[in-house]
Amino acid sequence: MVEVDGERLLESLQTLRGFGAVGSGVVRPTFSGPDMAARRWLRDQMEAAGLDAVVDGVGNVFGRSRNGGPALVIGSHSDTQPEGGWLDGALGVMYAIEVARALAELDSTRRLAVDVAAWSDEEGTYANFLGSRSFIGDLADGDMASTNTAGESVAEAIERVGLSHEPRVALDPARHIGYIEAHIEQGPHLEERGRRIGVVTSIVGMRTLQISFSGRQNHAGTTPMARRSDAGVALFDFGVRVRSRLESIAGPATVWTIGNARLEPGAESIVPGSAWCGLQFRDADEAVLDTVEAAVRDLAAEMTAEGPVAVSAARRRDPVTATDMSAELRRHLATAADARVRDGWTEMPSAAAHDAMVIAKSVPSAMLFIPSIDGISHDFAENSHDEDIVLGCQVLVDAAISILEP
Amino acid sequence: MVEVDGERLLESLQTLRGFGAVGSGVVRPTFSGPDMAARRWLRDQMEAAGLDAVVDGVGNVFGRSRNGGPALVIGSHSDTQPEGGWLDGALGVMYAIEVARALAELDSTRRLAVDVAAWSDEEGTYANFLGSRSFIGDLADGDMASTNTAGESVAEAIERVGLSHEPRVALDPARHIGYIEAHIEQGPHLEERGRRIGVVTSIVGMRTLQISFSGRQNHAGTTPMARRSDAGVALFDFGVRVRSRLESIAGPATVWTIGNARLEPGAESIVPGSAWCGLQFRDADEAVLDTVEAAVRDLAAEMTAEGPVAVSAARRRDPVTATDMSAELRRHLATAADARVRDGWTEMPSAAAHDAMVIAKSVPSAMLFIPSIDGISHDFAENSHDEDIVLGCQVLVDAAISILEP
Fold first, then answer.
1. Tell me, what's the pLDDT at A245?
2. Cα(B287)–Cα(A191) distance, rounded to whole angstroms?
3. How would you classify residue A129: left for phi > 0, otherwise alpha for psi between -120 and 50, otherwise beta?
4. Is the pLDDT score of A377 beyond 90?
5. Domain boundaries for CATH 3.40.630.10 within chain A
6. Count of Cβ atoms closer than 10 Å to residue A105 Cβ
7. CB-based contact B190:B338 (threshold 8 Å)
8. Are A129 and A121 in contact (CB under 8 A)?
C-alpha cells in the first residue's frame, strides 16, 4: 500500500497559500504576479517529483511522467477568484503532485504514469476554463481576445507574462486514459451528512436566461399610478412569481438565482421604462433544466398577456450541458473510498462547474470531493479539516494505482 | 383689457426652442453652451420689453421693471433635463416676458411693475433650484461645491461661463409682493378632464427612503435553496408587498416609485449578499406622507422579523414638505381663468416640484398650469396646443393686472 505523506502535503498547500495570501484567503487571479510566481513554483515542485514540467503557452503547468503510458492525468487549477479560498483548485493541484511523489517512492508503483496539471484560468478572470479547453483543443481564436475587467486580453496577458512563444500542452489520446480532479465540495452536503469523501456522479448543467421588461418611462411625480407601465414593478413581480413557480416543479437539488438586475434609467424620479435581470438555474438532469426553462418562458408570456409591461426571456449564453462522470473511474474512486472509510463516503453531483467538465468531452473523467467547513467557498473563510485533506489524497492515490495497474 | 399677442408669444417660444433643439425636443442643461446663449437672448428680450435685465452671479436672468413697487415677480426656468421638452420651464419664462411686453403697450397698465425671472438650474444638473434658492438667500456654501455628472462644481461652472464676478439678484421684501409661475402640467389630469387651465392649490411633498437588504453572499451553484439568505429575493418580495400595502392606505393622488435598485455584488453566479432600492413617494398631504412612511418602515421591520434577510429603511435625503400656494394669489388666477373659460379650468395640486415651491418660503406664490398633450413631459415628445399656450398667458396677464391694480 502506498501511503501519502500528510505532513508534506499540508506543508506544500501552506506554501502555495503564501502566493497571494490575504488574511486567511488568497488573491491569485490568473496571470497576476502571485499567480505566475505560484506557477513557476509548481513547475519546480513537479520537477522535484520526477516529472518533466513546463509552463505552457496559456499558463498551464504540466508535469509529464517519464514513464510510458497508459497515463492518468490528475490535477485542478491554481488560480483563484478575486477573493478566493486557500484550497479550492489549489487542493487538487497539490494532491496530484503528492500522488506523483508517493508513487515514485515505492518500487511497486514507480513505473506507473501520472501526468500532473495545474490548469490556467478556471475561474474565468479572462476566459473560463482557458487551460483545460486548450488542453483538449477546444480553444477558438476568439477566446484569445477575451478580456479581464481591466480590458487586457488573453493574448496580451500571455505576451506580458512571457509565455507567447511557449507551445501548448495537448491531450495525447495514445497516452492519456483518463482524468481525475479532486476539489473541496464548495457546499454543505458532505458535512451535513457526516461524510468525508464525495465521489462525483455528474457535474450539473447550467442555463442563464436574460429576462427583459419593457414598459414606458415617465415622470415619477406627475404620472398617476393607474396610468403607469412600470418595468420595475414587473421585475419585482417576476422575481416573486418565478420563485413560487420553480419551487413547485424543481428537483430536490435544482438551484436558481437572480444574481443581477437593473432598472433603466435608474433615476429616483423616473418611472423605469425598462428593466432586466439574469436568471441562472442548475441541475444534473437536463430534463429538469428543460422543465424550468419552459416554466420561465411561460411566465414571461403570461405576464406579457396580462400587461401592461412586456416580458421576454432569452438565453444569455450557450447552456452548459450536464456532464456525467466516467462510471469506470467512479468505481475505482468508490472502491478506494470504501476501503479507507467504510460508510464515510457518498456519491453526489457537483453543483459547481470544474475543469473535469471540459476534459470529460475528450477522455473519461471523474472527481473526488472533500468537505467544506460550513459549506463556504469562493470566500476567504473557505476551509477543510486537515484529516479530511489528507484522507482525500490517500483515496486519490489508491484509486490511481487501481486504475493504472493491469 | 390687455390682450396678449399670441403670434408674438408663439414665435418667441419657437426662437427659444432653437437654443439646443434636438428633433422635437431640447437639450439645454444648465451652463451648457445652448443654455448660456439662451440666457443672453432672454436678457436681450427683457431689455427690449423695457426691463433692466442682467444675467446674475448664478445664471439667473432677471429683468427688473423700471416702475416702482409693489412689484410682482413672474417667471420660471429656462434650463432643461438631459432630454427635455420644448415647453417645460421655457413656457413660463416667455409668458413672463410677454406679460411685460403687453403691459407696456397700454397706457392703463404701463405703470404696473412686473419683474421677470428665468431661474438657473431648476432641473438640478448641478444643484436643484439653484437660481430660485439664491434669489431667496437660501444657498449654502456647500451648494457651490455640488457637481454635475462630469464632476464640474457649480463654482467651477460659474467661473467657466464668466459669471463669477456678477452680483446675485435677491428678493426685495420692500418691493416684491408675490411670485407667479406658469408651467405645463406634466401630467394627464387637465387633458383627461377637458380643462384648459389649472390653478395650483399646493405643490406635493416628497420623501425618499433607501431600503437596504442584508443577507449572505454565496455560491449560486453549491448553496442549496433552503440554506440561502438571498438579498435579491427579499428585494423582489419587498417590491411586491410594498405595492399592495400602499395601495390600501394611499390617498387618491399619492404616487410612489422604486426608480433605482441594485443587487450586490451583481454577478450571475453569486447569491446576492446585499441589495438596495430607493422608494420615493409624493402627496400634497403631509399626513398621508407620514402614513406611507410608517407603513414602509413597518414592512421592513416585519420582513426582518420573518427573516432570513434583514431589511431597513432610512431617509435618503431631507424630505420636501408639501407647499400650499397663496390663497390670495390663487383667487386672482381663478377669477381670471373663470372670466376667460368658464368651467374650462380647475384647481389641482402640482405633482412635480417647481421653483414656486422654493420662493413660497419667502413671498406669497402661486402657479398656473396648461395641459400637456398625452401627459408627456421630460421627453422630446412634450407638447401643448397653441390655443392653450396663448390662453394661459392671457389668464396670467389678467391676473397680474388684478393683483397689481389697487
1. 97
2. 54
3. left
4. no
5. 6-204+322-404
6. 13
7. no
8. yes
Average pLDDT, chain B: 95
CATH of B6-203+322-404, one of 3.40.800.20, 3.40.50.720, 1.50.10.20, 3.40.630.10: 3.40.630.10
β-pairing, A61-65 vs A51-55, is: antiparallel
Nearest C-alpha neighbor of B230 from the set A44, A177, A277: A277
CA dihedral B374, B377, B380, B384 (to 10 degrees): 50
Do A261 and B263 make contact, defined as CB atoms within 8 angstroms?
A: yes
The confidence band for B275, taking pLDDT boundaries of 50, 70 and 90, is: very high
| Residues A251, A254, A259: CA angle, nearest 5 degrees | 150
Minimum-distance CB partner of B259 among A236, A239, A268: A268
The CATH architecture one would assign to domain A6-204+322-404 is: 3-Layer(aba) Sandwich (3.40)
CB hemisphere CA count around A398 (13 angstroms): 21
- Class of domain A205-315 (CATH, top level): alpha beta
Q: Is the pLDDT of residue A247 over 80?
A: yes
Q: Given B247, B250, B261, which is nearest A261 (Cβ)?
A: B261
Phi/psi for B288 (5° steps) reads: -65, -40
* pTM (predicted TM-score): 0.82
Tell me the average pLDDT across A259-276: 93
**Which residues of chain B form CATH 3.30.70.360?**
205-315
**What is the C-alpha R_g of chain B?**
24
* Short-list B101, B53, B95, B81, CA closest to B180: B95
Query: CA dihedral defined by A100, A103, A104, A107, rounded to 10 degrees?
Result: -170
Question: DSSP string covering A36-100, please?
Answer: HHHHHHHHHHHHHTTEEEEE-TTS-EEEEESS-SSEEEEEEE----TTB-SSHHHHHHHHHHHHH
Choose among B394, B388, B398: nearest CA to B190: B388
Indicate yes or no: CB of B271 within 8 angstroms of CB of A257.
Answer: yes
> Residue-wise over B360-383: b if at least 16 C-beta within 10 A, else e?
bebbbbbbbbbbbeebbbbbbebb
Q: CA Rg, chain A, in Å?
A: 24
Chain B: give the shortest CA distance to residue A110, in Å. 38
d(CA A216, CA B48): 43
- Low-confidence winner among A320-334, A366-380, B104-118 (lowest mean pLDDT): A366-380
Query: To the nearest whole angstrom, how far is the Cα of B283 from the nearest Cα of chain A?
Result: 9
> How close is the nearest chain A Cα to the Cα of B290, in Å?
17
Do A257 and B353 count as a contact with CB atoms less than 8 A apart?
A: no
DSSP secondary structure of B194-242: T-SEEEEEEE-EEEEEEEEEE-B-EETTTS-GGG-B-HHHHHHHHHHHH
CB A298 within 8 A of CB B309: no
Beta bridge partners of B71: B113, B176
Q: Minimal Cα–Cα distance from A354 to chain B, Å?
A: 12
Scan for cell 479572462, then name that residue: A126
User: Which residues are bridge partners to A26 per DSSP?
Assistant: A21, A84
Residue to substitute from B88, B186, B260, interface A, most A β-carbons within 10 A: B260
Contact B221 A278 (CB under 8 A): no
